[in-house]
Automatic annotation (TrEMBL):
Residues of the SAICAR synthetase/ADE2 N-terminal domain: 7-234
Protein name from the UniProt record: Phosphoribosylaminoimidazole-succinocarboxamide synthase
Domain of life, per lineage: Bacteria
Family the entry assigns: Belongs to the SAICAR synthetase family.
PANTHER family (UniProt xref): MULTIFUNCTIONAL PROTEIN ADE2, SI:DKEY-6E2.2
UniProt-recorded Gene Ontology molecular function terms: ATP binding; phosphoribosylaminoimidazolesuccinocarboxamide synthase activity
EC number from the UniProt entry: 6.3.2.6
Sorted UniProt keywords: ATP-binding, Ligase, Nucleotide-binding, Purine biosynthesis
Biological classification of the source: Bacteria, Pseudomonadati, Campylobacterota, Epsilonproteobacteria, Campylobacterales
């Protein structure tokens, strides 16, 4: 597959149509780092390739566990071939341990293991700051077709969470929380899309609670690339 026209550029990725098939897109993973809705920016050479490899491995794992995804194949270090989907304008978030915005909003002590996995939705709108939505908000905004579609997204992220929690625990990592996106293909099937990587997940070392994700950039801890390399190393081990 070869690139045709760039149809989208976001904070971390570019998307290109392909010359060979209108049903596929080529995704290019960038080396950009952003936080706080783009207010903090930087570059980390090699970060895009690491996210591509990590996300590809995770999507393959999920496919083996009967999760339908938009991934077709990894083309090279920085590029994936994916099925073209219409993205549902919701970030779907699973939280296993309280940290970040959850502790600020609800006053739960950082590091508290939640009594059950919390599922939240954020509306994908940079101008609004990606606000948190309840079910009724999502329906009013027509982000989904109906309640059954919302219920499907909740059930799917819970399945994904259980698969990944177990997998990463065996690799010595706590899956603290993560966000994912879904899209609909031309036949209306809902597929897991976008990426799952240290940009979109929080990983803590099981023994030391060392952060091995984008919080290293958010909090100015340094060692971003080294952390991402460690995550990939453990995935492949």
């Amino acid at each position: 597959m070869t690139k045709n026209e760039m149809i989208y550029e976001g904070k971390a990725k570019k998307m290109w149509s392909t010359k060979e098939c209108e049903d596929y897109l080529i995704v290019e993973f960038k080396d950009s780092l952003t936080a706080f809705n783009g207010e903090k920016k930087s570059e980390e050479v090699g970060k895009g390739a690491l996210n591509n490899k990590i996300s590809t491995e995770i999507f393959h794992l999920l496919e083996k566990n009967y999760i339908k995804t938009a991934l077709v194949e990894m083309i090279d270090d920085n590029h994936q071939l994916v099925k073209k989907v219409d993205i549902i304008p919701l970030e779907v978030i699973a939280r296993n341990i309280a940290t970040g915005s959850l502790t600020k909003r609800l006053g739960i002590k950082d590091g508290t293991v939640l009594p059950f996995t919390l599922v939240e939705f954020c509306y994908k709108d940079d101008d609004l700051g990606d606000p948190i939505l309840n079910d009724e908000h999502a329906l009013i905004l027509k982000a989904v077709k109906d309640q059954s579609e919302l219920d499907y997204l909740k059930a799917e992220i819970r399945k994904i969470n259980e698969i990944l929690k177990d997998f990463f625990a065996k690799k010595g990592l706590k899956l603290v929380d993560f966000k994912i996106e879904f899209g609909k293909d031309k036949d209306g099937n809902i597929l897991l899309a976008d990426e799952i990587s240290p940009d979109s997940c929080r990983f803590w070392d099981m023994e030391t609670n060392e952060k091995l994700d984008k919080d290293r950039f958010r909090q100015g801890l340094g060692g971003v690339k080294v952390a991402y390399e460690e995550v990939l190393k453990r995935i492949l081990s």
